[in-house]
Amino acid sequence: IKKAHVLGHSMGGTIAQTLAIHYPEKVKGLVLSCTFSRVPPRSLFGLGALIEELDKGSISQEFFATILYSYNMSNNGFANPELLKKEISDSKDMMMKPANLLRQFRAMQSYDKDFRINGSQLVRIKAPTLIIQGSEDWIVPIEYGKELATGISGAKFVVLEGGNHSMDGQEDKFRQEVMGFLIGVDENARA
User: Fold this and answer.
1) Confidence of residue 150 (pLDDT cuts 50, 70, 90)
2) What dihedral angle (degrees, nearest 10) is formed by the CA atoms of 46, 30, 7, 112?
3) DSSP state of 1
């Protein structure tokens, strides 16, 4: 594959930005979803503390899943207690092992300390870029998407109202925005 569309969500968005900066010839279109160029301090602190306690065995995986899901859920998600209980149970079953979560968290800390993308690097992103953010994302608040949109020339910034970090309940709108954008990039490339 000589050139491809790249979509990165959350921490994957930092990887996608890095790819677009260092290998611009490989990126046809870039989609950055609920991501950042600097790690939100609340996420570093709150999620870090939870992951550390989970890794030490001080809290159960179920408790961790409950707190993580409540941190991730939009306000509308709390209206249906049965659905909420099911979602927490499902997320607990899919969760990474504590040691892997800790490694991912350490990678985020390292990224923020050593590789944080600053404004002078963002301007190096030349691929057509869509930045899509949920209005109720508490893990990566909306201002981080706005920072990206300001730093990347010509970026399209879309806010999905009611969207959380996982875009629960916004999947169709998310898919429409992403596919519409990528089809447009392909059509412009052919023109």
Assistant:
1) very high
2) -30
3) -
